[in-house]
Specification:
There is one protein chain. This protein is α+β, with helices and mostly antiparallel strands. It folds into 3 domains: 60-107; 119-194, Homing endonucleases (Endonuclease I-creI, Roll); 203-344, Endonuclease I-creI. The chain has helices at 9-18, 23-29, 34-43, 60-69, 74-80, 86-96, 103-106, 119-130, 151-161, 203-206, 209-223, 247-259, 293-303, 310-322, 327-343, and strands spanning 134-138, 141-148, 167-174, 177-187, 224-231, 235-244, 265-270, 285-290. It has a 4-stranded antiparallel beta sheet, covered by helices on one side. A hairpin with a 3-residue loop joins β5 (224-231) and β6.
Length: 349
């Protein structure tokens, strides 16, 4: 509802009944949506003009999008087009062969759209699944979820699935650890391909360079780190690192990047059983690093346009903008960026 709107009954009746303006025309006159006008008409008990619903043409694609993808009710669709009864929309469904919802589906309020089947997008989603995101069945939906203290991680999930479902976030408090965000999105069953966490990168992704970079971007959005440090006395160096327990996935990434001409350093970082910050590591942790400047900048140019993680995007942009400068010229800016990101952590809110 647009703030500041207020009408009298006489004013709206004159525009609607005497001047024969439509709800859309009245809305344009007052710079608001027709739903705002409809709200005031109902509030002021102004009757609607009789409408021949058959004369109102609504394309099949729009009806399907509003009803199935945006989860509008038939009455909401009817109201949008100035049709009195939702059952008139059902008649249009029958004409176009659009199935109506079951009672259970009609009572589901969350917006859920079908996966469109784009393989590049599927590769990105697979990279998220291989990284930080956990997926499970939840009340006949596919739930993608994670926890984090980074607000950028909240935005990552929202940005990744904004066309398919509504992201929910709430604060998770636990006496045993720091407060963190619990983030999830419920998707429809066309996302069943995300249920199984991959142990290695699927061959259909490895065989296509575009799909591979989409996967790697998502995996980087979850697990990657960009570093900008001092080198020797006056120079600067920047590196890219993946540090995870996903040995096969890291080996897939190493082999594919090497085939594309990148110089990769791969090693065992921490052995299983070694003491971590709060408990022993349950698996071996491996480290994949890119140090060569031309390789780092080349990789950024592939990943930056695809990334949905605001922290990683800012760091990649900083590296590209300062790649030829000396350390004393960039150290202050790099420290400032790191402090900005640190200030966005949940504990600093």
């Amino acid at each position: 509802m647009k703030k500041g709107l207020k009408f009298t009954k006489e004013q709206l009746e004159d525009l609607y009944w005497n001047k024969k303006l439509s709800l859309i025309q009245i809305g344009k006159k007052f710079d608001c949506e027709e739903t705002n006008i409809l709200y005031w008409m109902k509030k002021l008990d102004i009757k609607r003009r009789p409408v021949d619903y058959k004369a109102i043409k609504i394309p099949k694609e729009i009806l399907e999008d509003l009803y199935w993808n945006k989860n509008w009710s038939t009455q909401q669709i009817a109201d949008k087009y100035g049709i009195k009864y939702g059952r008139s929309i059902l008649k249009k469904f029958k004409k176009f062969g659009i199935p109506s919802k079951t009672v259970s589906q009609a009572n589901t309020k969350k917006f859920k759209a079908n996966f469109i089947g784009d393989p590049a997008e599927r590769a990105y989603f697979t990279g998220l699944r291989a990284g930080d995101f956990y997926v499970k069945w939840a009340h006949k939906s596919i739930r993608v979820q994670t926890t984090s203290t980074h607000t950028a991680q909240v935005e990552l999930l929202r940005n990744a699935f904004e066309n398919y479902g509504e992201t929910k976030t709430y604060l998770s408090k636990n006496k045993a650890r720091a407060d963190e965000w619990f983030i999830y999105v419920d998707l429809n069953q066309s996302f069943q391909f995300l249920l199984e966490k991959p142990d290695e990168i699927p061959s259909w992704i490895l065989e296509n360079q575009d799909y591979f970079y989409h996967f790697l971007t998502a995996y980087m959005d979850c697990e990657g780190n960009w570093h900008f440090t001092k080198s020797h006395e006056i120079h600067s160096r920047f590196t890219f690192r993946l540090r995870t327990g996903d040995k096969l996935i890291l080996e897939n990434i190493k082999e594919t990047l090497e085939s594309l001409g990148y110089k990769i350093v791969f090693s065992l970082d921490t052995k299983k059983g070694s003491m971590g910050p709060s408990a022993p590591f349950r698996i071996d942790i491996y480290n994949l690093t890119i140090n060569r400047k031309q390789d780092v900048t080349r990789l950024i140019k592939h990943l930056l346009p695809l990334s949905k993680h605001s922290e990683k995007i800012r760091k990649m942009n900083f590296i590209l903008e300062n790649k030829g400068r000396k350390w004393h010229e960039v150290s202050e800016g790099w420290d400032k960026l790191r402090e900005e990101i640190k200030g966005e952590l949940l504990k600093n809110h």
